[in-house]
Amino acid sequence: MRKNYDFSNSKKNPYSAQLKKQITIRLDEESISYFKKISDQVGIPYQSLINLYLRDCATSNRKLSLKWA
User: Fold this and answer.
1) Spatial distance between the Cα atoms of 43 and 33, rounded to a whole number of angstroms
2) What is the Cα 54 distance to its own chain's centre?
3) Which residue among 3, 5, 12, 56 has its CA within the 20 to 30 Å range from the CA of 69?
4) Mean pLDDT of the chain
5) What is the dihedral of CA 45, 50, 53, 58, to 10 degrees?
6) What is the pLDDT of residues 8-37, one digit of tens each?
7) How does DSSP assign the chain, residue by residue?
8) Residues 57-64: contacts with CB within 8 Å, 24+ apart?
């Protein structure tokens, strides 16, 4: 290893805006099983599928319709 490194020509990470934040979320077993099943079919990790679905909902400004009984 060198003693000193020159970072004067370095560039900002272009993916830094896309970094993910780790959180804890509680999901029911049926929801997890649903995404795991799709995950097996398409070959994408189920957590990534959940993230893609939530991102799609957010970008298309989809609203959830709730009716309380």
Assistant:
1) 15
2) 8
3) 56
4) 91
5) -130
6) 999 888 887 778 888 999 999 999 999 999
7) --S----TT----TTGGG----------HHHHHHHHHHHHHHTS-HHHHHHHHHHHHHHTT--------
8) none
- Do 37 and 44 meet the contact criterion of CB atoms below 8 Å apart? no
Tokens 């990790």, residue? Answer: 45
Rounded to the nearest 10 degrees, how much is the dihedral formed by the CA atoms of 31, 37, 39, 41?
Answer: -150
pLDDT of the residue at 53: 95
Could you tell me the two tokens for 44? 């994408």
